[in-house]
Amino acid sequence: MKKETVTKILWALTLINTLILLSIVIVWACRHHGHHGKSHHGYHQGGGMYGKSHHGGGKHGKSHHGKNSHYILDLTGTWEGTNRTVSDLKGFKEWNKTVHITEQQDRRFKGNFTYADGTKHFSGVIYPGNRSFSWVSSDSKGYLNGRILGPNTISACYVESGEQSTAGCAELTRQGDG
Questions:
Q1: CA distance 148 to 155
Q2: How far apart are CA 132 and CA 146, in angstroms?
Q3: What gap in Å lies between CA 118 and CA 5, rounded to an integer?
């Protein structure tokens, strides 16, 4: 084989190897920085976590942009599901739960829900990473911790210690236009 042909083949192989390496680096960077496809921060579709991104409050499946953060799911709306609890006083119980998240600014949100003893108003926050949240109420002794399972599905788990200790979780689905 001529030296010229060997040189051309070596250059072609070098170019192919460089393109393969570059592709690997781009895929790795995208997955680890949450720009495209599925990353360790959640599912990205349409430019934001679980949907289109925007500034300020929005409709279901859209996200907030916060300063120094990636995409933040807009939780505003009506969420419904079955709440399953256990306590020493009441044993195992199940009932339908409806939660209204009425306002959200970046990671912070407010809302309410109605139950047998009245209505509870709460304030909450979505944690960095955009997969979990907590909310508290001024007239509660316990804490609610939740997980974002998808653009229209969350889990909300409440725990309270003391005389009326209880623990329970509800998987809630966003309803229509809430």
A1: 7
A2: 5
A3: 84
pLDDT mean across residues, the chain: 78
Tell me the two tokens of residue 172.
């809630």
**Dist CA 48 CA 72 (whole Å):** 8
- Report how many domains make up the chain: 2
The upper half-sphere exposure of residue 134, i.e. CA atoms within 13 Å in the direction of its Cβ, equals 7
Q: Assess whether 7 and 62 both reside in one domain.
A: no
pLDDT of residue 70: 64
pLDDT at 34 over 60: no
Query: Under a CB-based contact definition with an 8 Å cutoff, are residues 50 and 130 in contact?
Result: no
Could you tell me which of 21, 3, 104, 7 has the C-alpha nearest to residue 58?
104
Parent domain of 31: 3-45
With beta carbons less than 8 A apart as the criterion, state whether 56 and 66 touch.
Answer: no
- 167, 86 in Cβ contact below 8 A? yes
> Residue 26 and residue 131: Cα distance in Å, rounded?
25
pLDDT tens-place string over residues 35-65: 333 333 333 333 334 443 333 444 444 555 4
170 and 91 both lie in a single domain: yes
114 neighbors 98 (Cβ within 8 angstroms):
yes
